[in-house]
Fold:
Amino acid sequence: MLIQEVATRWNSTYQMLTRLLHLCVSVMAVLYDENMTKAKDRVSLVFDDAMWSVMEGAVEVLKPLAQATELLTKEKIPTSSSIYTILKHILTRLHEGQGSQGLQEMNGRDADVLTMLKARIVQGMITRFQVDNSGVPTTEPGLWSLAAILNPRYKRLSFFPYALRERIEDYLKEQLLRDSISEQDATHEQESPNISLTQEPVEPQTAESLIDCIQGDIAQSPSNRPYASIELELEAYLSEPISTSDPLGWWKFQENKFPRLAALAKNILCIPATEVSSKRAFCAKGLTMSKLRCSLDPENLDKITFLHKNFTFPERPERNLKTARSSHNNNSSSSDEHN
Structure:
């Protein structure tokens, strides 16, 4: 069956062209069959060899985009940390030559069509993601840069120049220091005693004891101690071997070793790269809350949606049921014949 293009669905153009090329022989057979296609309709429906070649080239151009979309819309793995690596891969593929031998043998007009398609895609990606032609961001480090360095697979940032890697590491230190100060302030507020009106008066401190208290406060101040420990923790993390396992699982295992980095990584890596997952959740809720179930309690609706997204139902043993029914029918028929 052929697939139609849908303007609101990603990769629908790629899927439509891929299916059409796969079924090209069957499609052409139907179009040239006089019993199924009228002659006047055949003129506008039949493609020449040049058009088929253009479709093959378009599929090759759109294939890395389709693969990237499939990866970035996954819900069970962190996706925001892979954005820059995927951008670099796609832009590298698009900047390469014509690629396959079939594309190299195209005539000038057809090659110009694919060149224009590549140029439009590259320009759109550069404008939308604010990167240069090689996929390096042109803005200051942000969320995606943090996600990349907090992923044990990409933490070396080998796809970025050295100067940008240093800026990302400094930005990560700033975020860790800010979180450490906020956490210590919150802890200090919780541990501060409540002074009651009946509390006994405190004896006045001498000058020597007051200086000792001030020096102790300075030594324990967040601006002195935490930053050094943050640097050591970050240096130890970056010196760890590259890990290709699940990033969240890796941080769970290394949480006691890198407590500050683990807390930040959990907050950053859980952010999805796209809004597809939220739209899928709303779509699932919309299908569940139908006209026949409009009085469903919101709490129950959330539970049903959670089970729909996270619970894998076992497959029904239909084949075993059919075998049991057929054997039962055979036994019944044999017993009837015997009687």
